[in-house]
Amino acid sequence: MEELIQFDKHLLLALNGSDSAFLDSVIMTLTTATTWIPLYIALLYVVISVNRNVRDVLLILAAAGLCVALAGAVDDEIVKPLVARWRPTHDPEIGHLVDIVDGYRGGNYGFFSAHAANTFSIAVFFSLLMRQLPFTCFMVAWSLTNCYTRLYLGVHYPGDITVGLLWGGLVGWVVYRFFYCRLTIPAKYPIRYCYVPMAVLMLTLLFALGKAAMA
User: Fold this and answer.
1) How far apart are CA 6 and CA 11, in angstroms?
2) Which of 76, 140, 154, 162 has the highest local Cβ count within 10 Å?
3) Residues 116, 119, 120: CA angle, nearest 5 degrees
4) Distance from CA of residue 32 to its chain's centroid?
């Protein structure tokens, strides 16, 4: 186990930070939760456009909220305080080696990553809901992008990210199969609607790049 922990630390230091102020700015924008509000609005637009029944729309919103509650809230309120594994930025052993960006260190504990769990639970749930391969690829890429920002900023170890992805994926699948599917028959989502959140994801990335370029 000790060898695995040390490997986790060495891998984090290899992935953490850079000498680029431009990339620092891009990462800080992409790791911020409010950056992705347009994506959530786009997903809501698709859900409302396809599901004319108010009950079905509310059910999907409840399922998405349940994903976040089970994936992130359980992590933040139960697992992190219970496990109490230091974030790399607070770890007495390697904290002085971690490249800190804009003074951002996060909270004391980092196991497991709520960013990874939250985003992957949403990605899995909506991918199962819409069942369009291009959309699924974009959503998984979105979640992995969020995961990379946490490694770059040095606020999570790769192990924290891996466990977060596994937990988030399980939560997204369970909520879809045992909550949503048991209460309604999922609608069919034409690919033309799925292009909307995909376009929003691309525009958000361009926004982060443009913001960094003008900084």
Assistant:
1) 9
2) 154
3) 75
4) 11
The tokens 């490694």 sit on which residue? 151
Of 34, 22, 68, 67, the closest CA to residue 204 belongs to 34
DSSP string, 76-88: IIIIHHHH-PBPG
pTM of the predicted structure, to 2 decimals = 0.95
pLDDT at res. 2: 81
Cis bond before residue 112 (omega within 30° of 0): yes
**pLDDT for the residue numbered 99:** 94
Q: Which residue has the tokens 């291009």?
A: 134
Q: Given a cut of 90, is residue 73 above it in pLDDT?
A: no
- Which of 129, 110, 115 is closest to 186 using CA atoms? 129
